[in-house]
Design brief:
Number of strands of chain D: 9
Number of domains of chain C: 7
Number of helices of chain C: 26
Structural class of chain C: alpha/beta
Structural class of chain D: alpha/beta
Oligomer: heterotetramer
CATH superfamily of the largest domain in chain D: Response regulator
Largest interface: A-C, 55 and 59 residues
CATH class of the largest domain in chain C: Alpha Beta
Number of domains of chain D: 2
CATH architecture of the largest domain in chain C: 3-Layer(bba) Sandwich
Helix content of chain C: 25-40%
Strand content of chain C: 15-25%
CATH topology of the largest domain in chain C: FAD/NAD(P)-binding domain
Chains: A alpha/beta (144), B alpha/beta (307), C alpha/beta (1006), D alpha/beta (221)
Largest sheet of chain D: 4 strands, parallel
Helix content of chain D: 25-40%
Order of helices and strands of chain D: EHEHHEHHEHEEEHEEH
Distance between the termini of chain C: 65 Å
CATH class of the largest domain in chain D: Alpha Beta
Strand content of chain D: 15-25%
Strand order of the largest sheet of chain D: 3-2-4-5
């Protein structure tokens, strides 16, 4: 049984998180390839629906990455993002999906190291959680 | 005299009237009612029989009042608008009257949220004030609300509650005035611990001469413990317990606190009786009926006048 | 023919020349950019990677190269030199001489046939390769054309026929022409020292002894070995590589120069790191050095990384010689360390000589032609308070030809030179129109025809993934009609290819598999536009910064992820829509924060060039840190300079000085900002409207609690000592012993960076103290003496004059104990290996500068600016945009960026002014196309957007639906994310492309 | 506006248990405004149902539609072309909408995805509070524009009960005492005296008392 490789979507705000990701690259910091970034202007742009769709389509985990508290380039986008993530976590519980599969994180543009650390930890956490139950069912579905 | 009510007679006589309270049991246990009633007998002019108090199901006020009548006590038949629409209300009123019950207290009732039937529908077809109007209409015009004539209309001595302490305070006198306007004969106040505030209220009441239009019975409740004092202060809406009173209770050893509570109650009565417009006392010794005789005696309200 | 007085002649097309040219052209100036080489680019294009990001230079610089070539304001003349310069500032006549290329560039297709046919007529490629046919110095050469060395050609006719395009013209001759220019910018750089003359290192004798630049070429994928690190002698990979620092620099030998070249320490560290990082981690890298001079912003951290993370070995010594060991074919280095005076010998496979800068004879010749003074080292002479002005008015200098320096500082000086040069020109005519572009093709309704171009970015991407395979994979994706590898996608050549492909294949969408859209999106957007497509029909898959750089050692991971990223981009771009940018009028006023040297200089330059400037200072008066400084290292009088500067600023009609001003709020967007202040003792509120902002908020004097500073009267800082020497000479005359301790509160965990200026200050004060009292004994306890550039001469003088320099290690710092009104300093002398104790009349601590934490934190928060780890403002690009901040319209100058001396502060202040001038030269602000759009049909007028918008833009209009003014929308997308009717879309980030990307990534392979 | 909240997922899943194809219908009116049944919520629920089913290893085909109003037959008609292709309709409208859809399509079960709550107003982003119980005989004119029927826990029409503390209702600090508000408003309007006008027992016929209500406008009918 080879180890499970989760697919993780990270919605990164252009000003901080995405820049931090680039920074991690230029610092040659290694982090898991499981994390795929979708760039958004602000974490406040991340629609609960986008996160749901990511999970529905089979992502095993979703990160919403914005600027540090109080540093949002659009004032409060990261705060709103956090509220939505929290709301969504409740909804997921209702559906029977582990809330931990969605997480809001913040970092500044300079924090390449933080980006690498967070993505590594998150990937590990998701790996422990195992595949998105939706996929499990999905494959059973495909099988039948 | 508007009615045959003993309470009305005592009040009319100018004597300080005294009422007690009897909370019906949560079960078909006539003896419980009878025991409680027995303790009060001779020490009060009338006994309030509560109606699903604190929104918990109990033996109906109507039935319990009937037991009291059978013991030749004078129940103050309490009725809340929470549990009945006006059909049931009027039906119960004539029913009670036909059992010789001639004194009642009109209330809106605690919200079901506080009881063990939070899921219950919250009727409030009428509010307490409209209930007063209804009863007055039945008595004085002899008409049901629907307009039909009542054969042998119920001659009810109509009471209501008054809370001098609830907010907005400035509205409290007006609230009483409104009940008077609706036709209330007597009011029993929320239990009084903050006497200064009560006096302020009474001033307002006197300014408007309300004390001449309605009998005002001051409510008192002996506290069993410092814990109870604190609980009432912090938890019970619309009750105002001054800090010094809590301190005083807490100041004495646990085993002495009950006695302290009684003493405070009696001191209060002494102060209250000095206040112009106070026509009597409503002693709410919750689940502590046995103490009523002591209180009444030591407060010099014993013996009760025979009317 | 461009307006003569609007033209600047830029000589030298390295990064400096290009930067100056680009600043000027952005500001609507015309530029003649000449270079004696056959293509532009200069030295940087030959480097493999640059510190401290270890970026490939070409990736970083290539966009600029092609931008240059594309920019209609810039005329590029390769193979050209100046032979005369008449007239004066504002009205020069330059005589330009063009060497023959023998190729008609109009015709040349760069097919390379001539080379195949005639490999013998060669010009040597810099580096080691003896095969290169023609002088294409690097694959992205601009202009994209060969040049031929006719001397070496025997059969001209055959050569001519070899060209299918008939582009070769053997009769091409030297031509001269005259140009009217208003100013001249000298950016000719320097060459690197040729160590052939040094017998002891055997360069040119032993093939495995190479210079730093040659080593760069060996590592470079575009180099002779195609990016293979091998020993020139036997083509085998080396196991042990050594670097020898200061070869030809900081020396007293015949071949040596006395100054420090300033960059060698960093490039040696870089080469060592890259060697381990890119090739084998088990290659032993050893650097022999005298002082490790990592004094630039965050360079100290890089130094630490080399030691700690990569295990680069550092030996402090100056090796005596290299001899080749015939038997092993290895190289033996013999050296003596502090530890043992006896010679140690050690064997290496390769030795890299870190050679420094030398002014070319050509440069001296040019200086004579231009009539500018050179200093004792033949560099262009400039003054302490006028960093880029040469002795001839109207002629400015930047980069290495001014003094040895690295790329960021060259960039600053280049912008500074551009700023001063433009002062000699007529005020720029408003609204210099954009280049005329082909009409935009309407692609709406078309099925996607996507073209995918995958960059290899040399080893950066190509090193980790098989680019052709990746392109092949992309070719099969839905909607993709063309997919190919693009080499350096950002090179002019590749961009032309992409344009051609768009037209030929009738593409309507493009995906670039390359680097980060943050840095390159703009370039590719313009490319699409030039090819007649709307610029928003391109999407970049960031397979470099976010893939190959991260997974360079795991090719499979990298490849799989690259496929995912490309697939996402393809899916996303298929949904992309043509969009129009929104524009607003530009506010031409400027806000300068900070009334120190930097702030005042920036303000002055901007005001002199017609901009209204608000100069806001937190303190009650102008001046800043420099008020505490009395003399520069060169001995210039700082107070009188400051007095004069303050006078100029206060008197200037266009400058409004606002003191005791604290920034409290900030709104708006680049080109129309509003910043609120609380001013004066009564803190009244005032809002200032401005188009751009210069942050010159400075740093603070670092005052660490160490060595009983502030407790003992005899213990002081260099700054205080500076004043004591000026004001109380008699006190100094009585001193018997003066001790200085370096790096107090710098290069320590709490403040890891080097404060840069302390070594200079220490030397300065030591020399001045000795002037007053020659008999005094002066000790300087240091870790590394960092007297970079020409300040090295003063270091030498100090040694000559008997200042005793003793090195200490951080684990054995000096111990200071009070001794009456004196202090006793105990320290270990590594040379004699004994502990010494000195009782000093004065102990001067080199405490350097610290980030003004409070100020920078507040401002960073209010302006939403990024900060470096040390808390200073983080520049947009550490190498190429050292003065721009992450938010457009914000620029940084002086020690708010990093510790600097006064001269360097002035340079960056003028640079900031130049960047502002470029930005404000436009009359309109481009707001981009990322705005929220409401679909009236869907809108339920629920007010969610009205309440959610951080800027209160949406409103319900008369037609009963939410309206969002694109001119006011900041494009954050919060409203779109919250709209319960899904009636709002944020253009460029609509749901469709986002969902499509998810689809692309997550399509179930079941 | 009519407010509503999504039912718990389990309940919804229970209703559609055994359905292979459902039509999930939103409404662009009130329930959109109160973030319960607009396009966004429809999409969210669709995704949620999908995931819940797939998790169970079941296939579920969810079609999303959002009507301008589910309480008007003309709009409801837009469902007609799709109705035969689905096993059930799940409506995210208020009770009115659900019933309108059910009335139109007799053969297809129509399930409510929302619990219709009350007629209320928005007290700020994400907050809605009850304001009206549709008694059919508005007495706001007498009570300073604040409805004691909808906003007093005991529907008291003649003043605050004894439980009113610091302007809050005895049932909880998060609930304003309607009569406190009324009194404050009356003072602002300078009509304190009107407080003592007794409001007589209400005639509930205009409300639910008379059974289901109907409005008929002859001129429009």
């Amino acid at each position: 049984m080879e180890q499970f490789e989760p697919t993780i979507v990270a919605f990164c705000c252009h000003y901080c998180a995405y820049t931090a990701a680039d920074m991690a690259g230029s610092m040659r910091l290694v982090y898991p390839p499981n994390v795929k970034i979708i760039r958004v202007p602000c974490s406040g742009k991340v629609d609960t629906l986008h996160i749901m769709k990511a999970l529905e389509k089979g992502a095993d985990g979703v990160l919403v990455a914005g600027c540090l508290e109080g540093d949002c380039h659009f004032k409060t986008g990261n705060v709103k993002a956090l509220q939505r993530v929290t709301y969504l976590q409740g909804y997921l519980e209702e559906i029977g999906i582990e809330a931990e599969r969605v997480q809001m994180v913040t970092m500044s543009a300079g924090m390449g190291g933080r980006f690498a650390r967070i993505t590594t930890e998150f990937t590990e956490k998701i790996r422990e959680l195992g595949p998105n139950p939706v996929n499990a069912g999905g494959s059973r579905l495909a099988a039948s | 005299m508007k009615t045959e009510s003993v309470l009305e007679k005592v009040l009319a006589s100018g004597e300080l009237a005294v009422t007690g309270e009897c909370g019906p049991p949560r079960g078909a246990l006539p003896e419980v009612v009878q025991e409680k009633a027995a303790m009060l007998k001779g020490y009060v002019d009338a006994v309030n029989v509560t109606d699903n108090q604190t929104a918990m199901v109990r033996m109906s006020s109507f039935a319990a009042s009937v037991f009291l009548r059978q013991m030749d006590l004078h129940p103050v038949f309490q009725m809340v608008t929470r549990d009945r629409n006006r059909l049931a209300i009027q039906g119960d009123i004539i029913g009670a009257y036909s059992h010789g019950i001639n004194t009642m207290l009109c209330l809106s009732g605690d919200h079901p949220k506080f009881g063990d039937h939070a899921m219950a529908a919250n009727v409030h077809d009428l509010d307490s004030l409209q209930l007063i109007q209804t009863v007055r209409g039945m008595r004085d015009e002899g008409l049901f609300q629907g307009g039909a004539e009542i054969k042998n209309p119920p001659k009810m001595f109509i009471g209501a509650a008054a809370n001098p302490f609830a907010d907005p305070f400035e509205l409290r006198v007006a609230r009483l005035a409104k009940k008077v306007k609706a036709g209330v004969d007597f009011v029993q106040t929320q239990c009084i611990y903050n006497i200064d505030k009560f006096e302020t209220w009474m001033e307002g009441v006197r300014e408007r001469g309300l004390h001449e239009q309605v009998y005002i019975m001051a409510g008192v409740t002996p506290m069993k413990s410092a814990g109870m004092a604190r609980y009432m202060k912090n938890r019970v809406p619309g009750i105002d317990v001054p800090d010094e009173m809590v301190k005083r209770m807490a100041g004495v050893p646990k085993d002495k606190q009950a006695q302290e509570g009684i003493d405070i109650c009696i001191e209060s009565i002494e102060r209250l009786r000095q206040i112009e417009g106070v026509s009597g006392f409503h002693i709410m010794a919750i689940e502590w009926e046995e103490k009523v005789p002591e209180i009444v005696k030591r407060a010099g309200l014993y013996p009760r006048p025979q009317v | 023919m461009p307006n003569q007085n609007n033209t600047v002649l830029v000589i030298g097309s390295g990064v400096g020349g290009m930067k100056a040219a680009m600043d000027l052209s952005e500001a609507g100036r015309d530029v003649v950019l000449i270079d004696q080489a056959a293509s532009i680019g200069g030295l940087m294009t030959r480097l493999d990677r640059t510190f401290p990001t270890n970026n490939c230079d070409l990736c970083t610089i290539a966009p600029n190269l092609s931008e240059n070539a594309r920019d209609k304001h810039i005329e590029v003349l390769p193979l050209t030199q100046v032979s005369a310069l008449q007239g004066q500032a504002g009205d020069f006549t330059a005589t330009l001489t063009r060497a023959p290329r023998y190729i008609d560039m109009e015709k040349c297709t760069a097919c390379g046939e001539c080379h195949k046919a005639f490999p013998e007529c060669v010009r040597f490629e810099p580096g080691l390769d003896h095969r290169a046919p023609t002088c294409m110095r690097y694959p992205q050469a601009t202009p994209q054309a060969f040049s031929i060395d006719m001397e070496k050609c025997e059969d001209t006719a055959a050569l001519v026929n070899a060209c299918p395009a008939g582009a070769i013209n053997p009769d091409d001759g030297e031509r001269t022409e005259e140009r009217q220019v208003g100013a001249v910018v000298l950016a000719i750089g320097a060459e690197l020292f040729d160590p052939s003359g040094l017998e002891n290192f055997g360069y040119g004798v032993y093939p495995d002894v190479v210079t730093g630049l040659e080593y760069e070429r060996i590592m470079s994928a575009s180099g002779p070995t195609g990016g293979e690190l091998v020993r020139p002698s036997n083509g085998k990979p080396p196991q042990r590589v050594a670097w020898i620092q200061c070869v030809g620099s900081r020396g007293i030998n015949r071949e040596d120069v006395s100054y420090c070249s300033g960059v060698c320490c960093m490039y040696a560290l870089k080469e060592a790191i890259v060697t381990k990082e890119r090739f084998q981690d088990d290659i032993e890298a050893t650097i022999f050095y005298m002082d490790m001079r990592t004094y630039g912003k965050d360079y100290e951290l890089y130094y630490d990384r080399a030691k700690k993370t990569y295990g680069v070995r550092l030996e402090r010594c100056r090796p005596h010689s290299i001899i080749s060991d015939a038997a092993s074919g290895q190289l033996t280095i013999s050296y003596a360390t502090d530890a043992s005076s006896a010679l140690t010998t050690e064997k290496f496979d390769m030795v890299v000589l870190s050679t420094g800068f030398r002014v070319t004879e050509n440069a001296c010749q040019l200086a004579r032609v231009l009539g500018i003074e050179l200093n004792e080292h033949n560099f262009a002479r400039t003054q302490s308070f006028s960093p880029v002005a040469t002795s001839r008015p109207g002629v400015y200098v930047c980069g290495v030809f001014e003094s040895p320096k690295d790329i960021p500082e060259t960039m600053m000086q280049a912008s500074a030179a551009a700023c001063l040069a433009s002062k000699n020109l007529v005020p720029v005519a408003a609204g210099n129109g954009e280049a005329e572009l082909p009409p935009e093709r309407d692609v709406s309704g078309e099925e996607p025809r996507i073209g995918v171009f995958v960059c290899d970015c040399e080893q950066n991407i190509g090193g980790a993934v098989d680019v052709d395979a990746l392109a092949a994979y992309a070719g099969k994706l839905p909607g993709v009609v063309l997919s190919q590898s693009a080499g350096h996608g950002c090179s002019r050549e590749a961009l032309e290819k992409i344009k051609a492909a768009i037209v030929e294949q009738n593409l309507n969408r493009v995906v670039i598999g390359g680097c980060s859209p943050r840095t390159h999106e703009n370039l590719f957007q313009n490319t699409l536009r030039e090819a007649g497509l709307n610029k928003y029909l391109v999407e970049m898959a960031n397979i470099r910064d976010q893939d190959t750089w991260v997974h360079m050692n795991y090719p499979e991971m990298a490849m799989t992820k690259a496929k995912d990223l490309i697939r996402m981009a393809v899916a996303g771009v298929a949904q992309a829509q043509a969009l129009k940018d929104n524009t607003l009028p530009m506010n031409k006023d400027v806000l300068v924060l900070g009334g120190g040297v930097s702030g005042m200089n920036a303000a002055l330059e901007l005001a002199d060039q017609g901009h209204r400037v608000y100069l806001a200072e937190q303190a009650g008066h102008l001046g800043g840190m420099a008020l505490a400084v009395r003399k520069t290292l060169e001995g210039d009088d700082v107070p009188s300079y400051m007095a004069d500067l303050i006078e100029k600023v206060s008197q200037h009609a266009l400058i409004e000085v606002i003191t005791q001003a604290i920034v409290v709020d900030h709104f708006g967007m680049p080109g129309m900002y509003k910043t609120g202040f609380q001013i004066g003792p009564r803190m009244y509120y005032r809002q200032i409207e401005h188009g751009a902002t210069v942050l010159a908020t400075g740093a603070t004097h670092n005052v660490p609690r160490a060595y009983s500073l502030g407790e003992h009267a005899a213990v002081t800082t260099q700054i205080e000592l500076d004043s004591v020497i000026e004001d109380q000479p008699e006190r100094v005359k009585d001193w018997g012993q003066l001790v200085m301790i370096q790096c107090v509160g710098s290069r320590v965990p709490e403040n890891p960076n080097c404060s840069r200026i302390c070594c200079q200050s220490a030397i300065k004060n030591a020399l001045r103290a000795l002037d007053l009292n020659p008999d005094m004994r002066v000790f300087i306890l240091y870790r590394d003496m960092r007297t970079y550039g020409f300040s090295e001469d003063y270091y030498a003088e100090a040694r000559r004059r008997g200042v005793i320099f003793v090195r200490y290690e951080t684990d054995t710092p000096p111990e200071v104990t009070p001794d009456g009104d004196k202090v006793k300093i105990a320290f270990a002398d590594p040379i004699i290996g004994r502990k010494l104790a000195v009782t000093a009349d004065c102990l001067a601590l080199s405490t350097g500068m610290a980030v003004n934490e409070e100020a920078t934190e507040d401002l960073a928060t209010i302006f939403h600016l990024n900060r470096s780890l040390d808390g200073s403002f983080l520049e947009e690009h550490i190498k190429l945009r050292p003065t721009d901040l992450s938010i457009p319209g914000f620029f940084v100058a002086g020690s708010a960026h990093a510790p600097k001396n006064i001269k360097e502060c002035i340079a960056q202040a003028q640079a900031a002014a130049s960047r502002v001038l470029s930005m404000l030269s436009k009359d309109t602000i481009n707001l981009g196309a990322t705005v929220a759009r409401v679909d009236p049909e869907k809108c339920a007028t629920c007010l969610v957007c009205v309440r959610a918008c951080p800027y209160g833009v949406p409103f319900i209009n008369e037609d009963r639906y939410s309206e969002i003014d694109p001119a006011k929308c900041h494009g954050c997308g919060t409203c779109a994310a919250e709209c319960p009717a899904k009636a709002i879309e944020l253009t460029r980030f609509e749901d469709a492309p986002i969902m499509a990307r998810l689809e692309g990534l997550l399509e179930r392979s079941a | 506006m009519i407010t509503a909240e999504r039912k718990p997922m389990d309940e919804i899943m229970g209703m559609i248990d055994g359905c292979g194809r459902i039509l999930l219908v939103g409404c662009n009116e009130c329930v959109t405004v109160c973030a319960a049944g607009g396009r966004k919520e429809v999409a969210l629920l669709a995704a949620g149902l999908q995931m819940a089913s797939m998790k169970k290893g079941r296939a579920l085909d969810v079609r999303e539609m959002t009507l301008e109003r589910q309480c008007d037959p003309e709009y409801v008609e837009e469902l007609a072309p799709h109705i035969d292709q689905v096993d059930a309709v799940v409506s995210m409208a208020c009770g009115c909408g659900v019933q309108e859809v059910a009335r139109r399509f007799k053969k297809t079960p129509v399930y409510p995805a929302l619990n219709t709550k009350f007629m209320g107003a928005s007290e700020g982003p994400g907050i809605w509070a009850e304001r009206c119980q549709g008694c059919g005989d508005c007495l706001l004119g007498l009570t300073g524009g604040i409805c004691p029927i909808a906003r007093c826990a005991k529907r008291l029409m003649n003043g605050p009960c004894g439980g009113s503390t610091n302007g809050k209702c005895e049932i909880g600090n998060d609930v304003d005492c309607a009569w406190h508000l009324i009194w404050e408003r009356m003072k602002e309007l300078g009509i304190e005296d009107r407080y003592e006008d007794v409001i007589a027992a209400k005639d509930w016929r205009t409300g639910r008392g008379n059974g289901p209500r109907k409005i008929l406008r002859e001129d429009l009918a």
